[in-house]
């Protein structure tokens, strides 16, 4: 299978991604491979100067491995699994 996406870049898109995630229709976690809407995210890491967390934590498993559809990456089970194989 040829690699269609840059998994390193996709991982970078999962941190400090508050704006991207909140403007996404759907988000997915590449640790537990579940999907959810941004409103379900209630924990954020990497607080900025005013204390607002910039990196979403998965509402299902609590891992900072969330990608939003606004990142341009496909939030599909296949892609999340490919990310998981690469990173975990
Ligand atoms: Zn998860």
Give an overview of the whole structure:
By secondary structure, the protein is α+β, with helices and mostly antiparallel strands. The chain has one domain (7-87). It is 25% helix and 20% strand. It is built from three helices and five strands. It has helices at 7-12, 18-22, 77-87, and strands at 27-29, 35-36, 43-47, 53-57, 66-68. The chain has a three-stranded antiparallel beta sheet with strand order 2-1-5. Strands 3-4 form a two-stranded antiparallel sheet. It is globular. The two termini are 19 Å apart. The model has no long low-confidence stretch (mean pLDDT 95). Bound molecules: zinc ion. The site of zinc ion has 8 residues, from loops.
Tell me the series of helices and strands, N- to C-terminal: HHEEEEEH
What compounds sit in this structure? zinc ion
Number of helices: 3
Query: Which sequence of strands runs across the widest sheet?
Result: 2-1-5
Mean pLDDT: 95
**What Rg, in angstroms, do the CA atoms define?**
12 Å
Topology:
Layout: H1 7-12, H2 18-22, E1 27-29, E2 35-36, E3 43-47, E4 53-57, E5 66-68, H3 77-87
Antiparallel strand pairs: 1-2, 1-5, 3-4
The chain binds zinc ion.
């Amino acid at each position: 299978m040829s690699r269609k996406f840059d998994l390193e870049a996709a991982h970078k898109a999962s941190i400090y991604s508050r704006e991207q995630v909140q403007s996404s229709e759907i988000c997915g976690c590449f640790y537990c491979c579940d999907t959810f809407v941004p409103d379900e995210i209630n924990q954020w890491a990497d607080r900025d100067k005013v204390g607002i967390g910039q990196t979403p934590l998965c509402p299902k498993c609590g891992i900072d491995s969330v990608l939003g559809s606004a990142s341009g990456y496909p939030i599909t089970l296949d892609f999340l699994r490919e990310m998981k194989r690469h990173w975990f």
